[in-house]
Amino acid sequence: MKRFIWILPAIAMLCFSNAQAQETPRVEISGGYSYLDANLSGSNGTHIHLNGGGGSATENLNNWFGGRIEVNGYYGYEVVSINGLPTRRSVSAQTVTYGPVFSYRRSSRITPFAHVQIGAIHGGKFYQDISAGAYKFAMAPGGGVDLSINRKAIIRLDAEYLMTRFLSQRQDNLVGTVGIVLYFGHR
After folding, report:
1. Could you give the domains of the chain?
2. N or C, fewer C-beta in 10 Å, the chain?
3. pLDDT recorded at residue 4
4. How many whole angstroms separate alpha carbon 64 and alpha carbon 19?
């Protein structure tokens, strides 16, 4: 009897996970607030904290794999010393990335996911100390969790490492996002 006692918790977990299985949406549309910690270690060793927002669209091909396109805009300012006087200058950046997303849909309330997106970043004048706006390569691996509000809407918490290259130097940036996701259709 002792040999089979471990089977009961295993069966209970299997039954519980199947009872809580989540329907896979065909399309997810999300939007929300986004924060960018822009690392300027390549130029003057400081960070610029930019606030913004954006949106994404995900098409799920099955219950664990899909493709996501994401667009974000970030804005802020930094204080620099010009001729000994503190001067405030505007800084902005926009990203457009696309890539695969991998979801683990075993619960109706929580869906963890991971993604690797590549694309472009447009740094405005003064972003990473550049003298004019420029488009550069961007890579954004990351992950997060979707927390269910109801059957159609969820809250998304997402974190990414955003790698960029300006002025022939690599920048290691961090991005945090919180937003609302709407589901459309079923797989």
Report:
1. 22-184 (2.40.160.20)
2. N
3. 46
4. 18
